[in-house]
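We emphasize that the prediction below concerns an isolated chain of 436 residues; any contacts that depend on oligomerization or on bound cofactors are therefore not represented. The input was used exactly as deposited, without trimming of termini.
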Amino acid sequence: MQTHFTAAQLNDPKLAEANAILRACVHCGFCTATCPTYQVLGDELDSPRGRIYLIKEMLETGREADARTVKHIDRCLGCLACMTTCPSGVDYAHLIDQARVHIERTYRRPVSDRVLRWLLARVIPYPTRFRLALFGARLVKPVARFLPDARLRAMVAMAPPRLPPVSRNDDAQVFAAIGVQRMRVALMTGCAQKALDTQINDASIRLLTRLGCAVVVVKFAGCCGALSQHMGREADAKALAGSTIRAYMAEQRARGLDAVVINTSGCGTTVKDYGHLFARDALAADAAAVAGLALDICEVVAKLGLPAGDRKGLRVAYHSACSLQHGQKIKSTPRELLQRVGFDVVEPADSHLCCGSAGTYNLLQPEISGQLRDRKVATLEARGPDVIAAGNLGCMLQIGQGTRVPVVHTVQLLDWATGGPVPRGLSLNLAANPPM
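Result of the prediction step, given as a token string:
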């Protein structure tokens, strides 16, 4: 792609990066075939190629973002399926990040949008606040259909039927390895996950200690910053990420870590990119170090090895989260681990397509998100599963709103298969419909 940035503009490292990304695009259009929003909406401007043109024009001219550009950029899921497809290696992830930051700095959204985005940024990354918000949402659920805004209805729908107990793993703790210690790892316990599903962290700790890991829950390691970053709130994202980086590096320097283990793949994609986020920051070296330590939990489990198991008869439909398969390029490992312990694993048609969760996307773009969820659920249910597994909490919640098939985290199944409890929800389903 031909670009026309001035020499003065190219002195800005961000614009120089954008220029290099744009020039890598050859207009081939392969990305349109795998873009979920283009498939749903059929508008070229709702494809990666269309958005690249909008971003190019906005950044080259240095103009403030306008409503038309914002509409199409906001509709991007950030699923990164386009990057998996692109034959030219266009770094769309960092380009869309730049566009979102530019929009946040130059565009004045309607009041309702500003309030909603401010609330999301001030509530979800903080587990106590989020729990209080979920409690309030549960009270509103009986009258949710009367709420005037679809986005408010989507927020209320997120609240689970019951809130999980406050996690006992919130404070700094060390869980000893069972048997010979093979690794010492920090577990990122997340922010939304603490409020919505504490079982995932519990299962992760049981599995990792069983496989020989000493597991550390590091105090002050909070939100990774992904949610704020996806909304273009770069300062907020760096503040949250910076606190987390400092917490992990303090533990690394004091007692040593072999890995920072992440069981929510959306967070993992962000943490592995800390080196880029802080490239021109005083925290650059520490950020790169944490990024180098970051591993998805399935990567750690594969490294440690699993004993062969026998769960024949239980059919697991594996949903590959976009942040895992496209963001982190981890595609076959979770499926192979599930097969290793004996589950009958199947995948849906068009497994590369997003379920519509995408961080806050299901709250900010509920109509498009709902269409994508329905498509994903239909392809999963077509495989006749006893349970659906995914490696990302957002995907689990999104898919769970559209199906009666139990939806659990991959690590919960691996924990169960190696001696842990039957995941809640799955146990009730098995009691009613035992596998043949």
